[in-house]
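Continuing the series of single-chain predictions for the mutant panel. This is the parent chain; the variants come on the following pages.
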Amino acid sequence: MAEPRVAVVVPCFEAAELVLDAVRSIREWEPIELVVVDDASTETTALAQLERHGVNVIRRVHNGGPSAARNDGLAATAAPYVLPLDADDLLVPGALAAMADRLDGAPAAAACVGDYEEFGTASAIRAIPDTLDPYRVAFNNDYPITALYRRAALERAGGWRDPLPGTRGYEDWGLWMTLAERGERIVHLGGVAYRRRLHAPGVNAAAQRRHAALYAALRAGHPRLFAELAAHRRASTLPALRRLAYPVLLGDRRLLRGAHLVKPLLDRAGIGTRRA
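Parent structure:
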């Protein structure tokens, strides 16, 4: 049997049976390397069920958050492409092979992204940019949590890191900033890659309440990206009005406090729900 091209890392904390749905959603015609990283959950019935079916489950003794769990999964796998899948999300069948094919055909690309469908408390198709634009990622994370990364690029970037020590959140945004700062390229699947489950009030609510501190830490951690903003602005593929709006409305959000205000405004303007 051929060696797997893709490793799927599923960090899991108190996800109960949702993690079973996440694993069942991985439906491909080729072998997939799968590891579930339990981040010290107290309810482990579903994880034991996965183990009985031969799934590799890594059990962390102490809860370290998504960054630590994903990095443990990265270290425990060997496939050349790596995709993190949150335990409450679902993959589109066949998406992994299609994304791996895109990376096979673009050896200089660090990652393949796809659009994603939100479901749960709301529904929408979120469009992901075709290119990794350093200007837009400096002010807003327009890029997905779940993407297929080239392992070598992911390791060069240092994997996932919490931007503010002792405070979790925005580790995915920090990774995209690092890739952009390094001048990495991405390719697009050309369709929906996964389905992201929305919860109330939202799993990122705590991070959003600490947005100002986390964003300040992201800026401090990516000095080159922000030092070169003028050049990135000139090269950005964003339409002119959005290039003006991003640093005003997004970034540290001094004018609009809280994602519960920003996101509806962007949705009504079609930002994030159509590709640009």
